Amino acid sequence: MATAAANIGVAFVLVWVSTWFRVPVDAVGEQFPLFSPDVMAFWVPWFVGVLLVEAVFTVLVYRRGRYTTGYAIGNALLGAAFAIPAIYLLANDLLVNPALVAAIEAATGTEWIRWSLVITGASIVAVVIWDAWGGFRKARRADVGLRQLGRTA
Question: pLDDT by residue (tens digit) across 66-104?
């Protein structure tokens, strides 16, 4: 259930830092929205939707009491539905507001923000792969346990 709470928390943060609530990032005395204006219309709602579906999915797995192969596949697909667009947007400099990136780079004289975006992308990939692998591992373990008890899935 902590996973469901974490997904809802991340969804809330995405909405909070988006310009829907006009919470800008203050950089070098100017305020910028964190996300690129081009992303706001479709991708922020997409990510929020995927996170909320993941939260519901987590509750369903909890109610079932165990992972199944179907749940593991669903978990992997939900992870991909989040990670693939996120990595695409990060890799093509489409996610974070370019004016914010330019202001930070001008103020610091370095490209540390770009490296932090690379680290963010790598972290997303690592978490999604770890989560998908864990789902399949749990499903396999549950299947083996049921076979040992002489039950079917």
Answer: 889 999 999 999 999 999 999 999 999 888 888 888 888
What are the beta bridge partners of residue 35? 96
| Residue 90, both tokens | 């990060």
Domain count, the chain: 1
The answer to whether position 153 is within a domain reads no
Cα–Cα distances (Å) from 128 to 29, 111, 122, in that order, read 36, 26, 10
Its domain, for residue 28, covers 2-148
Residue 91 maps to a domain = yes
Cα–Cα distance between 147 and 134 in angstroms, integer? 20
Apex 63 CA angle, 62 and 68, nearest 5: 70
Backbone dihedral angles phi then psi of residue 97, each to the nearest 5 degrees:
-55, 120
Structure letter (DSSP) for residue 95: S
Per-residue DSSP letter, 140: H
